[in-house]
Automatic annotation (TrEMBL):
Belongs to the UPF0295 family. It comes from Cytobacillus depressus. It is a multi-pass membrane protein. Its main location: membrane. This is UPF0295 protein F7731_25155. It comes from the Bacteria. GO terms for cellular component: plasma membrane. Keywords: Cell membrane, Membrane, Transmembrane, Transmembrane helix. The chain crosses the membrane at residues 12-30, 36-60. The lineage of its organism: Bacteria, Bacillati, Bacillota, Bacilli, Bacillales. It is found in: Cell membrane. It holds the Pfam family DUF2614.
Length: 117
């Protein structure tokens, strides 16, 4: 059941893990105090990861404007749907915006069939 999850949540988890990786890399730099060059490289790498995560967070902001807010029929909470099919953020109920896909088994492939861009 945990195979699919809400896309926005997935990207958010990715951005958060980038921050953690950034801090870990910077922390590792402390072990190379003896070499100023190595320490600088680690610090810069860490900063790069944190910048990347900021970019991802910015991307989430952009994506959020394209999402459709729906009320989940399963748990009754407001959730965001990105693309044709997505999962509820709270209970992972598969949701679709396409009537023709209603009742069909959930498949992320439906998102790739027709892209409006
Ligand atoms: Zn739900």
């Amino acid at each position: 059941m945990a195979k699919y999850s809400n896309k926005i949540n997935k990207i958010r988890t990715f951005a958060l893990s980038l921050i953690f990786v950034g801090f870990i890399v910077m922390y590792l730099g402390i072990f190379f105090r003896s070499s100023a060059l190595l320490m600088t490289i680690f610090m810069l790498l860490g900063i790069l990861f944190i910048i990347a995560s900021t970019v991802v967070y910015f991307w989430i902001g952009m994506l959020s404007t394209k999402t459709v807010q729906v009320i989940c029929p399963n748990c009754g909470k407001h959730t965001k749907v990105l693309g044709k099919v997505d999962m509820c953020m709270y209970c992972n109920e598969p949701l679709t915006l396409d009537r023709s896909l209603e009742g069909k088994e959930f498949d992320e492939k439906y998102n790739k069939k027709s892209r409006p861009q």
